[in-house]
Amino acid sequence: MSRILEVIFQRPIRLLSLVILLPIFSVAVGYLIIPHTYASRASLWSLRRYEIIGDVNLQPNPPPTPADTQVAALSALLQTRDFDLAVANESGLVTNLDAATRNAPQLRDDALFDEISKHVTVTSQNNNLFTIDYTNRDPQIAKKVVAAVIQNFGLQSVSFSRIQGQRLLENYQKQLAMATQDANAATAREQQYLAAHPHVTQNILYVGPQYAELFDPEYALLHTQSAQALDRMQQIQTQMATTQLQIAAQGSSADNLFKVIDTPDVADRPTGRTKLLSMVGGAALGIALLACTLYIIILVRGDRTLYTPRDLDNIEAYPIVMQLPYLTSKDLPRLWAKSIQNGAISLQTKNSH
């Protein structure tokens, strides 16, 4: 410990300079290099939950708010390449790229995708309100990106829903055709049986179909099959009607999905860089402390000064006969005079004897 303290106090200016100057220099460089950025925000009001026609997934309890569902849907779309490239192309974000990146299609698309997917944020504010934020060094580009995100979100949401609805209708139509065929076949078999057994028809007229089934099990089976086939056909027709109503309710635009409350705007002044510069200064301070620590370790490991008898034992195996204290330039004349005086006294004592 004494070695460490001696190393520190022998070079205080050098160590303090490294700890103080490196963070200050890093913050100054960051201030000059990090460009000013401008934030753009739009506020949207969710008119309903984001739903896909025909989605039968179980909803959690309590169910999510309309804003939460639309935030989740838009956040998922922002992680898709086609959506991000459409937003970037409409907003002119490519002008922010350097010439080498713009001329390489793959690099250009990768850069645009990374920019949109990582820097456009969607946040739910309450049950119906959510916001879209984006920051860019060009204020007009920031505004155009947010506007493009809103437009493409509405277009793709309606497109996805309509495509899913049309697919469901096509599937239901195929099922309805098969169900109608089965119902016609079951009804025909029932009618043929009744034509071949007039007494069953009389029982139906007197006591009704339900009681007539009690007297003839075979007719009961045919009647049950015919009723089930008709029920299946009616269920499919009901599902088709529900799907058609959902498609009509969603319409061909996003006007009933959300409403833009605050259009994308651009701040007059750039966003503050205090937080970012503080992070740069903190990182530089950590590096400076680490460098000081390594510097002290190197100096301590390279110090061969003897401080205790144990240090001498580590160098030589000879026993210690005498230890001399640390003497300064002022102490040497006094020690020399005292030694001469002690020598003269010893000589007089011998002569007297």
UniProtKB/TrEMBL annotation:
Keywords: Membrane, Transmembrane, Transmembrane helix. One of its GO terms (cellular component) is plasma membrane. GO terms for molecular function: protein tyrosine kinase activity. The chain crosses the membrane at residues 12-34, 276-300. It comes from Ktedonosporobacter rubrisoli. InterPro entries: Bact_polysacc_biosynth/exp. This is Polysaccharide chain length determinant N-terminal domain-containing protein.
